[in-house]
Inverse folding.
């Protein structure tokens, strides 16, 4: 019998970059101001939030999206201290003091879609509690036969090109047209989606306030399919190139340390847990290069859900701010920890990854 990990590697081998799918029947394009173009209808009860759908179009391709918007009363103001170096993407024109919802971009893995990701992570329910909008971009089979994001292709690893540019444009348009908070934009994903999330941190660091990678691969670890197989399988003890240098080169003059959360299962047969260690190496060197300041390492600090079989490693700045946090889960395979069985590639057991991510993004300063 072929193991799932070997099967997924085979699927990636057979998949390739293709054309773009047209919008599905009934899909609404996020353009203009009319209800048929993805705008909210005034007669809809939004006490539980609302899910809308549309298609983003750009020179880099078209992608369908699913967007959860929380009820207005759930949205709270951010902490009084802002983040230096953030590029303000828009001015939606709210009255002074009116809170704007943060945006979490959640990227699915291979063979998944937006609805599958929403069901498996239960992120909408958590986002309602915290007043967060959640955007689920969707990869079509025309772009990759198994719906994988093409994180390993050089054409999708730089600013202004490919999937990073496409998702960055989708984020900008969503923030502008939905009146969201441009200084609280977070990106998370699993597997190929996690690798793309890391790529966005490298290519658009000024637009991203935090990243979470579940069972993914560091930016720069693979260029092309052969290297992707090697890093996913954990065949090498060390990456083929300096991962911190790869990040700094991609960031260019926008370079800054984007806070990163990594979660990975020790029993993952699809993406080796060695990649989590490479993330730690990459971020520790990145912090040293960009800040010139020492970091403080904490092992197994107090964390809700971090029981037996869970190892947590944290890198903090000298002021106590968290730059990097890694969870290694001894009993987890290639699955979303604490997820729902209503979605694929989830494991209901273990710490709840969705809640851990949300707390990392919104409450990091309080840890």
């Amino acid at each position: 019998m072929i193991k799932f990990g070997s099967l997924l590697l085979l699927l990636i081998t057979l998949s390739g970059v293709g054309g773009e799918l047209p919008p599905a029947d009934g899909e609404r394009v996020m353009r203009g101001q009319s209800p048929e173009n993805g705008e909210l209808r005034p007669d809809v009860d939004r006490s539980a939030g609302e899910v809308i759908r549309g298609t983003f179009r750009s020179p880099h391709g078209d992608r369908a999206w699913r967007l959860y918007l929380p009820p207005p009363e759930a949205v709270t103001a951010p902490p009084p201290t802002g983040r230096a170096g953030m590029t303000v993407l828009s001015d939606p024109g709210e009255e002074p003091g009116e809170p704007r919802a943060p945006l979490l971009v959640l990227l699915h893995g291979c063979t998944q879609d937006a609805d599958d990701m929403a069901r498996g992570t239960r992120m909408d329910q958590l986002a309602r509690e915290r007043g967060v909008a959640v955007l689920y971009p969707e990869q079509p089979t025309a772009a990759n036969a198994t719906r994988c994001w093409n994180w390993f292709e050089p054409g999708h690893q730089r600013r202004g090109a490919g999937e990073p540019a496409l998702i960055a444009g989708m984020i900008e348009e969503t923030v502008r047209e939905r009146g969201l908070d441009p200084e609280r934009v977070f990106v998370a994903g699993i597997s190929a989606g996690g690798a793309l999330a890391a790529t966005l941190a490298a290519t658009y660091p000024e637009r991203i306030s935090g990243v979470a990678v579940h069972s993914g691969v560091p930016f720069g670890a693979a260029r092309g399919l052969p290297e992707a197989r090697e890093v996913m399988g954990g065949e090498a003890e060390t990456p083929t190139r300096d991962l911190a240098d790869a990040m700094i080169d991609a960031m260019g003059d926008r370079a800054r340390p984007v806070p990163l959360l990594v979660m990975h299962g020790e029993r993952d047969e699809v993406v080796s847990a060695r990649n989590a260690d490479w993330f730690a190496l990459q971020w520790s060197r990145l912090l040293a290069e960009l800040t010139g300041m020492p970091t403080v390492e904490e092992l197994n600090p107090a964390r809700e859900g971090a029981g037996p079989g869970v190892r947590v490693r944290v890198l903090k700045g000298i002021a106590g701010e968290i730059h990097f946090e890694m969870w290694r889960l001894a009993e987890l395979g290639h699955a979303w920890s604490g997820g729902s069985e209503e979605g694929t590639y989830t494991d209901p057991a273990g710490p709840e990854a969705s809640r851990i991510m949300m707390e990392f993004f919104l409450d990091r300063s309080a840890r």
